[in-house]
Structure formats: structure tokens, C-alpha cells
Amino acid sequence: MLIDTHTHLDSRKFDGEREEVIERARQAGVSAMMNIGFNRQTIPTTIALAEKYPFIYAAVGWHPTDVEEMRLEEDLAWIERLCAHPKVLAIGEIGLDYHWDSPRDLQHIVFREQIRLARRLKKPIVIHNRDAHADVVRLLREEKAEEVGGIMHCFSGSWETAKMCLDMNFDISFGGPVTFQNARVPKEVLANVPLDRILLETDCPYLAPHPHRGKRNEPAYVSLVAQAAAEIKGITIEEIGKITSDNARARLSIP
Ligand SMILES: [Zn+2]
């Protein structure tokens, strides 16, 4: 039993094969998935997937690399309306991305506004953080994100940062990188995070785990992430599957 807490199954990379990919996930023991709608194009396609499959849920939010195309008030109101949808479990992915060239001042505004919205609606948030650890932690703290908490998606920071996030009511979600031979830091962080605060994800079609690294990722491969996590924690894959699924169900209120 496994839950993939972060998928992009609506990605064009799955066109023509989406049904098979979803079926393979079911065969691999994936009992639920949360697909992420993060801009004008992917929010409607995410909702459509969640309406089509009983075991696919949705998160909706505005991604930091797409802030320039956001109509702030209008799109916040859109996200707010969608949060009333029974399959929408969280607001995300939201956060900061300093890797790509997206205006940082605008990223901050959009991030803050969505944390405020999440607090108002009492929804957990899913955090995207790329090369912006200090500012992500600072904004989460300033906006009192602890009140709703959420998920640090595909966490890539240090144990120090992870600790601050845990203290702010965020669970840490691990993906493909923990399976990479040379990924010392994510393995170290995973070893330190308490079992009841760990989630698993693929972030498919991106970040495929070993031995598929560099190829298209899919939710069935969350079992490879689970295998790596089980080894690091010194427990069985069944145990890690059960624990992380319980964690995901509690955090996201999955029925
Ligand atoms: Zn994502």
C-alpha cells in the first residue's frame, strides 16, 4: 500500500499512455495519488483527472515560476472556489524558485497571498522550494503557515532546514533523489526525519528514481522510493508503505 503525494499525470508526457500509466500504479499498490494543478493550464486538467478517477485527488495553487501570468485577485478567487471541490485536498504547489528567472518580489507576494488563503480556508499547503531555503522558511514563519501546515515537496534542503519545517507543522516528502547513489544529503535527512512525518512522492514525469534516472517518471515508481526509504530506516517496504500512507491520509484528510 503506497500513496504518491505529488504527481503531474496531466502532463503531455503521458499523452496516449495515461490509462496504462495509471493502471501500472494500481498494480504497483498505489492506493491514492494527489495530482498538482499549478497554473492556468494544469489546474483544469488536474480537476478533470480527480473527477475521473476515485483514487486521484487534487491540489491547486500557483507555481512560483508562473507568477508573471497570474491575475492575482482573479486567480486567487478561482483557487478559493476550487478549494470547495470535494477532491481538492490542499493548496499547492506554491513557494519560491530562485533557480529559474522569475521575479522574486512577485513570487513573494503570490506565495504570501496563498498562505493567507490557505489559513482562511484551513487547507494544508504543498511547498515548492528551489534554491530558496532561507526565504521559504522566513515567509512560512512570517505568514504563520504553521496554523495549517502541509508538505515540503521533494525536499532538497539540509537537516537544519528540515528541522525548522518539522517544527512549523510541515511533513517532509521524499522522491527519486533518495534513490540516487550520490545523494548523500537527502538520505541523511530521511534518516533523521521521524517516521510519522515522512511522505513519499514521485513528482512524475520528473525526477525518476534509480534505475530510471533521466527517463520519464510515473507513479508506479513510488515503490522504488519506498524501497530506498525502507532501507535507510531499517524497516520493511510494507511497513514504510503503511506508515507513509497513514501519514498522507492524516495530513491530507484522504478518506
Ligand atoms: Zn510538482
Structural features:
255 residues; alpha/beta; 8-stranded parallel beta sheet; binds zinc ion
What does this structure look like?
With 255 residues, this protein is of the alpha/beta class. It has nine helices and eight strands. Strand 6 (150-152), helix 6 (159-167) and strand 7 form a beta-alpha-beta unit. The radius of gyration is 17 Å and the shape is globular. The model has no long low-confidence stretch (mean pLDDT 97). The structure holds zinc ion (ZN). The site of zinc ion (ZN) has 5 residues, from loops.
Number of helices: 9
Order of helices and strands: EHEHEHEHEHEHEHEHH
What is the share of helical residues? 40-55%
- Cofactors, ions, other ligands: zinc ion
Question: Radius of gyration, Cα only, in angstroms?
Answer: 17 Å
Number of strands: 8
Biggest β-sheet, characterized? 8 strands, parallel
Kindly state the mean pLDDT as a whole number?
Answer: 97
Give the CA-based shape.
Answer: globular
pLDDT below 50 for ≥5 consecutive residues: which ranges? none
Q: Estimate the strand proportion.
A: 15-25%
The rounded distance between the terminal residues' Cα atoms is 15 Å
Record the strand order, biggest sheet. 1-2-3-4-5-6-7-8
